[in-house]
Design goal:
Elements: H1 5-14, E1 19-22, H2 29-36, E2 43-45, H3 49-61, E3 66-71, H4 72-77, H5 79-87, E4 93-98, H6 108-124, E5 128-130, H7 136-150, E6 153-158, E7 180-181, E8 184-185, H8 211-214, H9 223-234, E9 239-241, H10 245-253, E10 259-261, H11 269-279, E11 285-290, H12 291-295, H13 300-305, E12 318-324, E13 327-328, E14 334-335, H14 343-349, E15 354-358, H15 361-374, E16 378-383, H16 398-416
Helix pairs in contact: 1-2, 3-5, 3-11, 9-10, 9-15
C-alpha cells in the first residue's frame, strides 16, 4: 500500500501546514511534484537542508506552519541548524525525512546514515515516528500536536515503498539517479513542473559588469557607523541580524522588538530573512549579514535572485545588507575570502534586481532607503573597516527574542493591512 504525493500534501494542508521548503529525494518526489504545481501552498526548493530549516524558521516567525522535506543524509547536513536555531529558539516545524539505507538495503553511501538516523533524532531530542501509508493522517496529526505542545520540530521518517514514486528509482536500487523515463525528460511527464522560461532582460535586471566590480573598495567607516546609518533608514521594517558582532553592535545602537538577533546557526540570517519575506510578501524585510556569514551560505544568493517560489519572481520586499570587513571578527580577525571577491557582483550575477557597493555612512543610509523605496531583491554591500567597539551581549534568552520578534511581525502585518 502506498500513498500518492498529492494525497500526502492534502492531508498536511488539512492539518494546517501552509509553508513547505526542502531538498529533493527520489522517495518523496511525488509530493514535491504536487507542491510545485499547487495553487495555494508555497514550496521553496533549497540548496541545502540547513537552508530549508532557516527558511522554515522565518516562515514560522511570520505566522506560518512550516514543513521541511529532506533526505536523511540532509539530517546530517542540517544538524547545527536544527540544534542551534530550531531547538534553541523552540521553533515548531515538521521534518519529513526520507529514510535511505532503511534495513541496510541501499547504495553504499546510504547504509551508515540509514542505520543511525533514528538514533540521531533521539540524540538531539527530536520526537519522531516512522510514517506508514495506512496511518499518514494520524501520523501528521500527531506531529502537528506534538510540535505545538513542545514548541519545537518533530520528525516523520519515510521508508521506501510508503509514498508513490515517479517512475523507476534506479538510485534506490544502488545505481545512479535517473532524470528520464521512457526517453522523456521528467519536466514533460504529466504532473511534473514545466521548465521555467528564460527571464527577459530589462533595465532592472543585473547586467554583466566590468570595471566597477573590479575596482577595489576602500572602507572609510567602521561597521558600527555603517550599522547606525542603516538603522536610520529601515523604519519599522523587521531586521534579521547575523550572529556575532552585528547583533551586539546593532543592539548597542538601539534595541527594538523588530530585531531578530541570531545567537547561533551562523550563515542562516539570509535564509531566515527569506522565509520572513516570502511569508509576508506585502511588507518589507531587511537582513543584516556579514561577509563570513554569507560566504558560509553563498547558495542563498541564486535562491533569492532566481525566484525562490515555483512560478513566481524574486521577492521584491527583501533588502539584503552585507557589512563586509574582510575578516572573521568574532574569532580573532582571520582573513575572509571576501577581500578578493566582490560580493555585490556575485549577487548581481545571481539575479538580484539591484546591487550597490558603498563605503560611507550617507551612502549606506541612502542605499538601504532607496532599496526599501524602489523594491528588490536588493543587495547593499557596505565595505567597512575591521575596527570593533565594545558591545554588550544580547541580554534576552532565545525564546524571548523569538516572542518579541513574532509579536512585532504580527503587529506590523495587521497595521499594514488596515
Amino acid at each position: 500500500m502506498t500513498i500518492s504525493g498529492k494525497d500526502f500534501v492534502a492531508i498536511a494542508e488539512a492539518e494546517g501546514y501552509d509553508f513547505f521548503a526542502g531538498v529533493p529525494c527520489s522517495l518523496v518526489g511525488d509530493a514535491i511534484a504536487a507542491l510545485e504545481t499547487h495553487p495555494r501552498l508555497p514550496y521553496v526548493p533549497a540548496v541545502r537542508e540547513d537552508v530549508a530549516v532557516g527558511v522554515a524558521a522565518g516562515a514560522w516567525l511570520s505566522g506560518r506552519s512550516p514543513l521541511v522535506i529532506m533526505q536523511n543524509s540532509g539530517l546530517g547536513t542540517s544538524l547545527n541548524a536544527v540544534v542551534s536555531l530550531s531547538l534553541m529558539y523552540r521553533l515548531p516545524a515538521l521534518l519529513l525525512i526520507t529514510w535511505r539505507g532503511y534495513a541496510g538495503k541501499d547504495a553504499p553511501e546510504h547504509i551508515v546514515m540509514g542505520e543511525i538516523s533514528p538514533r540521531l533524532l533521539d540524540l538531539i531530542g527530536v520526537p519522531h515516528r516512522v510514517l506508514a501509508a495506512g496511518t499518514v493522517a494520524a501520523d501528521i496529526a500527531w506531529a502537528r500536536a506534538e510540535s505545538t505542545r513542545l514548541s519545537q520540530p518533530v520528525a516523520l521518517l519515510l521508508p521506501p515503498g510508503v509514498m508513490k514514486t515517479r517512475g523507476h528509482d534506479e538510485h534506490a536500487a544502488g545505481g545512479h539517479p535517473r532524470t528520464t523515463r521512457g526517453g522523456e525528460s521528467l519536466s514533460t511527464i504529466s504532473g511534473g513542473p514545466e521548465m521555467a522560461p528564460a527571464l527577459p532582460q530589462s533595465a532592472d535586471m543585473p547586467q554583466a559588469r566590468g570595471g566597477a566590480a573590479d575596482t577595489p573598495l576602500v572602507p572609510r567607516i567602521s561597521r558600527l557607523e555603517a550599522l547606525r546609518a542603516a538603522l536610520g533608514a529601515v523604519g519599522e521594517a523587521p531586521v534579521v541580524h547575523a550572529n556575532g558582532f552585528i547583533c551586539r553592535e546593532s543592539f548597542s545602537l538601539g534595541d527594538r522588538p523588530q530585531n531578530f538577533y541570531m545567537i547561533g546557526s551562523m550563515g542562516l540570517a539570509s535564509a531566515i530573512g527569506l522565509g520572513v519575506a516570502l511569508a509576508r510578501p506585502s511588507d518589507p524585510t531587511v537582513v543584516f549579514d556579514g561577509d563570513g556569514n554569507l560566504l558560509m551560505n553563498l547558495g542563498i544568493l541564486p535562491m533569492i535572485g532566481g525566484g525562490p517560489l515555483m512560478a513566481a519572481g524574486p521577492p521584491a520586499n527583501l533588502v539584503h545588507v552585507v557589512f563586509d570587513n574582510d575578516v572573521y571578527g568574532s574569532t580573532g580577525n582571520q582573513a575572509s575570502p571576501s577581500r578578493r571577491a566582490r560580493l555585490d557582483a556575485i549577487a548581481a550575477a545571481a539575479g538580484y534586481r539591484r546591487t550597490v557597493a558603498v563605503t560611507e555612512a550617507a551612502a549606506v543610509r541612502e542605499g538601504v532607503a532607496s532599496a526599501l523605496r524602489d523594491g528588490g531583491p536588493a543587495f547593499v554591500l557596505a565595505k567597512v573597516t575591521a575596527e570593533e567597539r565594545e558591545a554588550p551581549r544580547i541580554p534576552y534568552p532565545p525564546e524571548e527574542i523569538r516572542d518579541r520578534f513574532r509579536g512585532a511581525l504580527a503587529g506590523v502585518t495587521a497595521e499594514s493591512h488596515r
